[in-house]
Design a protein that fits this description.
The chain has 354 residues and is α/β, with parallel strands linked by helices. Helix content is 40%, strand content 14%. Helix 3 crosses helix 12, helix 9 crosses helix 13 and helix 12 crosses helix 13. It is globular.
């Protein structure tokens, strides 16, 4: 199983341990997320240095191994968009604690996360803030080889589901099965461990939760047809933002201009990937040569139009999306406190919002 496929499962899971986040915040109290220089822990100044020719070192940490969710970041580096803003951006893979912990604690100023993770963090007092939706609509869903005859959520009954045992899995499954009179207790749940989707469906399971842009496209390339049930098609509340770009409250308070500069260049990077999917795929392949070039190119072609989709601009986040998903999580007893959606996200640092 490649790292991206493992990341695709982990990103739906209760992705960052909230207790670990709180410990990190305690240990790093007083640390600034606003100007951490890549790999040094040093704090930079809050101004861009384009006039002096000096670039400010800034890091952004990914959620998992690089994939087409991240192409806009790599394009912004490759095309000089960050440099134009006076930034020297390093793209990092997460440490053992995960991207959320690194951003919330101030170890790095920016990272890739998910609405479900940010929502859970906020009710625990973890100061993550979403500053852009990478993809406008949820592209995840339950997938099965076509020979399993899973055409609707009710068909999950009597089948073997491969997952990791998180509460959100059963809650989502139950929500969409309830609409068709299905009974989630009749689904056999199996821990997939590190097995990838294609291995697991041949050996242990009938269906799993995937992101079509990667695993679904890979199924096409392997000529292994699947039936895909997108969760957003069964509930507006499940059409949440995944992934998102995040920072922390202290970063916004201490150095809003860095957030603004980073987001201006990042938006340009994703716009480049929207308008030039083939060239953007080549940028990602060049930056991460271990990736399968055929998969990257096909995935990028499929995903590029979905970055912005029907939004007025790339990155825009709608208040109702945050409100609806928070209410759904509360209704499923997945939150341990009150969720204030207005503090969980902001559009203020997107270029058109300046």
């Amino acid at each position: 199983m490649n790292g991206t496929q493992k990341g695709n499962r982990k990103r739906i899971q209760w992705l960052a341990p909230i207790a670990a986040l709180m410990l990190a915040l305690t240990a790093c109290s007083g640390g600034s997320g606003g100007g951490t220089t890549a790999g040094t822990g040093e704090t930079g100044t809050s101004e861009n240095n384009t006039e002096t020719g000096q670039l400010r070192d800034v890091s952004v940490v990914l959620d998992w191994t690089p994939n087409t969710n991240h192409t806009g970041l790599y394009a912004a580096v490759d095309q000089g968009f960050y440099e134009k803003e006076g930034l020297n951006v390093s793209i990092l893979q997460p440490g053992a604690g995960g991207a959320d912990q690194m951003v919330a604690s101030g170890e790095v100023p920016f990272g890739v996360s998910y609405q479900e993770s940010v929502t859970q963090a906020r009710v625990q007092g973890v100061p993550l803030v979403s500053i852009a939706a990478v993809i406008q609509h949820n592209t995840s869903g339950f997938a099965a080889p076509t020979d399993r005859n899973i055409k609707s959520p009710k068909d999950f009954e009597g089948k073997r589901y491969g997952g990791w045992g998180s509460p959100v899995e059963e809650a989502v499954m139950q929500s969409i099965m309830d609409q068709e009179g299905g009974d989630v207790s009749k689904v056999e749940k199996i821990n997939m461990g590190d097995a990838d989707f294609f291995t697991a469906v041949k050996r242990d399971i009938d269906f799993a939760w995937i992101f079509y842009a990667w695993t679904g496209i890979e199924a096409e390339l392997r000529n292994e047809p699947i039936d895909m049930l997108y969760v957003k098609d069964y509930s507006d509340s499940l059409d949440y933002y995944t992934p998102v770009l995040v920072t922390n409250e202290k970063q916004i308070s201490d150095d809003p201009e860095l957030v603004r500069s980073f987001m201006k260049a990042t938006a340009e990077g994703y716009q480049y990937a929207i308008e030039h999917p083939a060239e953007a795929a080549d940028i990602l392949i060049k930056a991460v040569p271990d990736l399968d070039p055929e998969l990257v190119k096909a995935s990028q072609e499929w995903l590029s139009p979905k970055y912005q989709d029907d939004a007025a601009q790339w990155g825009w986040q709608k208040p109702e999306v945050w409100q609806n998903y928070g209410k759904w999580m509360s209704s499923q007893n997945l939150l341990e406190g009150e969720f204030d959606s207005t503090k969980a996200f902001t559009n203020d640092y997107l270029p058109a919002a300046q």
